[in-house]
Amino acid sequence: MNSASQPPEALARWVAEVKHCERGETDLILIAGDASPRRYFRAQYQMPHYGATTEIAVSSPPTEKNEAFLSVRLLLEAAGIRAPRLIAASLEHGYFLLEDFGDRLLSHELAEGHERCWYPKALDVLNQLAKVKTESAALPAYDRQLLIQEMDLFPEWFLKKLLGLSESEIDQARLGPLWALLVANAEAQPQVVVHRDFHCRNLMCLNDGQLGVIDFQDAVIGPVTYDLVSLLKDCYVVWPREIQLAWLQNAFDSLTHAGHLSVDVEFPEFIRWFDLMGLQRHIKVLGIFARLHLRDNKPSYLTYLRDVLTYVGETLALYRGKDAHLEGFADWFDTQLVPKAVAQSWYTAEEG
Fold first, then answer.
1. Of 103, 120, 223, 300, most Cβ neighbours within 10 A?
2. pLDDT tens digits for 230-272?
3. CB within 8 A of 247, min separation 6: which ones?
4. Are 251 and 265 in contact (CB under 8 A)?
């Protein structure tokens, strides 16, 4: 076992103290983490009165919105959404002890062909989120500043640092008009509680048939289509356009029936909201995945860049000739960016 997989001794002592047991009666085993510096361990208790009970111990540095994690967890719980039950927390140390949701990620179930069972449940969760009163949610707004800040990761980390483009080459992309279009699209939509990373690796398939939600500390008040994009245009699993739109129609009907969308909003407009919101998210993700590789030494994310670029290209192709704000970028993407990306080793690498 290398040092990276070993639990911090202080975390192990804290868990033992919380559970009123000796340090040697508690085993902490590293489990798969996420794209953040958080580390997750499965706590196994060896004492007879605990039986086979396991819980999840988390070591989370102060940079990881620990207070937001606790407040959003309460918000989800109050909305009837299955978030992990909190057993104990120490904000001082960044330690949490949580209910163990097991190992059945939605991504695993999709690989087995079980999407018809679980996707309706995921859409139901988003309906529950939309019901939360935004004025009492005490969440930050997904505003213009944050949207642009996210998209600016694309020229900085993907174009300049990963692909090695010069400032003059980046200037040719005409990002300003595109940023303005994507911000306006986000602002035009009804604003609801947004998980902000609602994809197949942050949804857990529980033994009782419910869908559990994790990694929710970045929640905001934002556009109604944002989480739908994360789910239906997932960076880790790709669905044909007709399947995306069939599920999107279900979501549109449910949101309209529940009164979360005005009756004046028709499905074609909702599709445009969804597609342009996807363009914003995937441009951001290109920057984030490049940064995870270059700054955080997590090269596995490079293998997903090809699919993310495909999403961007498909959306640009759908809206060519329909909005002048994206014409310059679309031309540059096809003639300058794609040839540069295709020449990279990660573009042809197999997913890990």
1. 223
2. 999 999 999 999 999 999 999 999 999 999 998 899 999 999 9
3. 119, 123, 232
4. no
CATH class of segment(s) 106-347: alpha beta
- The pLDDT of residue 1 is 44
Cβ-based burial of 39 (10 A; exposed 0-12, middle 13-18, buried ≥19): buried
> Using CA of residue 128, residue 267, residue 189, residue 218, what is the dihedral sign?
positive
Residue 186 and residue 225: Cα distance in Å, rounded? 9
The H or E element spanning position 184 is: helix 175-187
- Six token digits for residue 133: 């009163």
Separation between Cα atoms, residue 211 and residue 193, nearest integer Å: 18
Q: At what angle do helices 175-187 and 144-151 cross, to 10 degrees?
A: 140
What integer is the mean pLDDT of 301-308?
Answer: 97
**Residue 5 pLDDT > 60:** no
Tell me if the domain spanning 3-99 has CATH number 3.30.200.20.
yes
Per-residue pLDDT averaged across 63-84, rounded?
A: 96
Phi, psi dihedrals of residue 213, rounded to the nearest 5°: -115, 130
- Answer yes or no: pTM beyond 0.90: yes
Name residues whose C-beta falls within 8 Å of residue 128's C-beta, 6 or more positions apart in sequence.
79, 80, 81
Q: What is the pLDDT of residues 136-176, one digit of tens each?
A: 899 999 999 999 999 999 999 999 999 999 999 999 999 99
